[in-house]
Design goal:
34% strand; PsdUridine_synth_RsuA/RluA; RluA_PseudoU_synthase; 14% helix; two-stranded antiparallel ribbon; alpha+beta; PsdUridine_synth_cat_dom_sf; Pseudouridine synthase; catalytic activity, acting on RNA
Length: 232
């Protein structure tokens, strides 16, 4: 039985990967929206962050991933030892990640916590679902930056809230489904309600960007505080 994931073919991504920092152990990059982190099983989905970088930096491996539509900061390991050390930091939740997002609607609270377990649902694949019984614990914090009204081409006005999102766990689709659960989907999110409001059907991208990444350099122990401003 085929699934939505099996039939998905990523459109060509003509944007380049921006290397923000590199040394003998790791890379910090700015991933463009519309690029897979890792090549898919379908040979038509070969283009990805890893596929592009391994041709320039042989032996490099991914430590974490960003969704296809998400742009922003990723750290890439250049050897196995670095990968192991960085993966340990991620598993111990010693890495701080901050995302910028535009949410549909005006949030009533200035900040808050979303604590909702996330589960795989074979019937809905590739979507995830909120499930307190079978889900894995998932927790995200949010902070409002601004509320504003965005005029659309059809003359309607879309109320938006710019937020910073702080995932404390790293579940698949966590921020996207947590924002939907909160009642304010991320603008442009095709899986979790971000294209349902009038005028949002043809939003060019998912309005989610990995804007900050804080961790310790696995060799020097130096604090790495990476910042990359939101493109929207």
């Amino acid at each position: 039985m085929s699934t939505l994931f099996d039939t998905f073919i990523a459109p060509p991504c003509h944007d380049e990967i921006e290397v923000l920092y590199q040394d003998d152990h790791l890379l910090l990059i700015n991933k463009p929206t519309g690029l897979l982190s890792l090549s898919g099983k379908n040979p038509q989905n070969i283009d990805s962050v890893h596929h592009r970088l391994v041709q320039i930096y042989p032996g490099c491996t991914l430590v974490h991933r960003l969704d296809f539509g998400t742009s922003g900061l990723m750290v890439i390991a250049r050897n196995k030892a670095t990968n192991a050390a960085l993966c340990q930091q991620f598993s111990l939740r010693a890495v701080t990640k901050v995302y910028s997002a535009l949410l549909c609607g005006h949030l009533s609270e200035d900040e808050g916590v979303i604590d909702a377990a996330i589960a795989k649902d074979p019937a809905l694949f590739p979507l995830m679902s909120i499930c307190a019984i079978s889900g894995k614990p998932a927790r995200s914090r949010y902070r409002v930056v601004e509320r504003f009204n965005h005029p659309l081409k059809d003359g309607t006005v879309l109320p938006l809230t710019r937020v910073q999102l702080f995932p404390e766990t790293g579940r698949t689709h966590q921020l996207r489904i947590h924002c939907q659960h909160l009642g304010y989907a991320i603008w442009g999110c095709d899986l979790y309600g971000g294209r349902l409001l009038p005028g949002t059907e043809r939003t060019p991208r998912l309005m989610l960007h990995a804007s900050e990444l804080h961790f310790k350099h696995p060799v020097s122990g130096e604090a790495i505080n990476a910042h990359n401003g939101s493109p929207f």
